[in-house]
Amino acid sequence: MKVIKIKRNHFIWYIVKKELAMKRKDAKEIILLSILIILVSLIIFSPYLINHMPLTYGTDIKPQWFEFYTEFENLINQFFETKQLPFYSWNLFLGNNFYASKSYYLMGDIFSYIGLLFPLQFFDVAQILEILKFLVSGLTMYYLLSCFEFKSKVKMIGAIAYTFSSWAIFFSGQLSFLSFYSWMPLYFAAIELYLKKGKKLLFPLTSMLLLFTNFYFFFTLSFITPFYYLYRYSLVKPNYKNVVKDTLILVGCYLIGICMTGILTIPTASYILQNDRVGQFSLQLFFNQISIYLHELCARLVPNYIYIYRTNIFETASHTTRELCLYSGVLSALLLPQVFSDKDKRYRKNTLIFYLFLNLFLVFPVFSSVIHGFSSNSFRCTLILIIVQIIIMSHYLEKIDSLDIKNLKITTVFSVFILLTIIPMTAYIINKPVIDYVNQIILFIMAAFFVVLNSWVILKKKSYLLLLFLLCIEYSLSGLTLYYSRMKSEGISYEFVDSVTHVLQDEDNELNEFLENIEPINPMQYYRTYIPLEPIYWDFSHNMSLMVQLQGTMTYDSTYAPSFNKMKKIAPQVKDYESDWIFNIKDPEILKFLSVKYAIVTDSEQLPSGMNWRLLTDNYRSGLLVYRNDDYRSLGVTYNQIKKMNELEDGNSMSILMSHVLCNEEDYSEIQQVMKSSNLNELENVKYAGNHLTGSCYTDDSSFLVLSLPYDAGWNVLVNGTQVKTYDVNGGFIGFGVSQGENQIEMYFTPVGFKQGAILSILGFSAYILLISCELLRAKKIRRSVYD
């Protein structure tokens, strides 16, 4: 017994020493990897840092993310002051369910909350967060490759390749996109841990984290997961004997993760499923433009994000098919074809099938439409292709001494040939002069040089450190080129940002205080203010009302209130730039309906015509003109006429919004029954803040009150303490019946599905705690059996 005990103690000590040594080695590698990522990031961002300019790279960071983040910060601060949850935003276009609509952008993203810790200007916070996300991307990818048990240098190369891939660089301007990307390797690591070691705890946790971060990409990831899981199962497991049991356990873990997010995702689903972008399913089998397929042929070989929004021979005039991000370093493109000559038949066959399957989403629009949430087709799903490419690349880097040299040479020659001929060939096919694409040709020649250089290193030197160095150079140069070109063409100064955000006020709510003091009645009214985009906001953004806490009349927001789709249909003039999610309301009748009371302009010609404007001051902030609309009508007005929406004729004047209740056919009889008063009455004594609104309305008989707030089933309306039914009327606005006499109206907002989601989250977390307990007991039994 004593001998057995001594041997067991020696064995335990040996295991502990080995684990400590491995942890010390990993710690050194992680520190080195972190230093490399930060250095490459600083090189990429150096144009902005050196020129002291705000990071405005990305289509939407200036007109959307800046403003949405500002409102997010305001609502979080409001929560700490008033303890009201950040559900409703009065400043977001006409009033909006911020909690559900901005889960896509902010609400579930951990990095959004980390950003609040930095008392800096938004663009500085964004830059810090982008570097942090690059760092997290590298570390999570390093961990994933550790689960595959690759060599340390292989893991570092793979981590750098993932951190600065074309997808990461191109979408770094979309803050939540990069957030999702940075956590995604943990999801694949969780699958690997489950298949190899039976560990289950990470999978629910990463499912929860990713779904919280971005539901849109999580749908794509979930769609691919069964195929990836079966692919890895076929390589890890000796057979499919237990596949049903193993799969059901993992599905259960997945569902636990989904349930834990219910408090946010149930309200979000209730909201987003009403968006008119959902359901734009494409049945198109092939792309009409051959240039898309030619671009796919070379996109893995060249950092194409440099030219996507510039002189681009593969231009498609659509951002969804233009944004083709497949590049994960030249090394990745060179080693991927090794799979064709792999001597392991099982690995070769299964990997080829799975990789070709992923590429079907690039070839057939109908498939990309499915993976895009059954909406319009898009190439954004390539983030999964990137991670798979790097895993395959790492597999062959691991056995660099036994690569198929003939395969590598053929790949090198073919790649160089494609890079040198693809632009002239495309120019010939689309009948454009090749001379117009000189810059693109130079970029492709440089890419060919890196192909040859990497191939030479593999063939002659076989040095991991040199390959790592070349990869860092590739990404540094391409990223620097992109950010420099964007800064030169689109960059703005801190002074400009400060000026445009302080045109109307210097301190928060200064403009609102000024307007409230113009008339004594104003603190008891709800009103909107018309401000032209170009002269006042210098064409900076349609969301500038968020920067001055103002109820405005325009927005650029793909998650606007779904009920507004009806207004968009009956009054298409509300759209700006012919976009389905950019609105700038200038129609005088609609402005009157929306309770617009003031306008701030630099010249009277900027005022919407057909309204009764009266000048109040011509010297607000040293020169701005402030006008009052003398036809102002209250936020709520009762009606005595009604018309069905489907009876509206084309060309109807929008004045009908103020004379008739426009309702759905099924609501017609119910609404008509309460419209007994012949008089028109207004909502008075209006108070609103956070998630509630109160007011009063006197009527001589029962009537129907319409509020120019977007309809949302989340509004709980009480009239004299009794809950009443609300209706979607007048192009997507809220209406309800009021009784004879004095009506005290109270409205409270809670996102649809929030309570049910909260219950689901409690159940999910309870299930996860139970799973942890089971796993701890299982681990204890395994340790006991090993030691015994």
Automatic annotation (TrEMBL):
The chain crosses the membrane at residues 30-50, 125-144, 178-195, 207-229, 249-273, 352-371, 377-398, 410-431, 437-457, 464-484, 757-777. Keywords: Membrane, Transmembrane, Transmembrane helix. InterPro entries: Uncharacterised_YfhO (IPR018580). PANTHER family: INTEGRAL MEMBRANE PROTEIN, INTEGRAL MEMBRANE PROTEIN-RELATED. This is YfhO family protein.
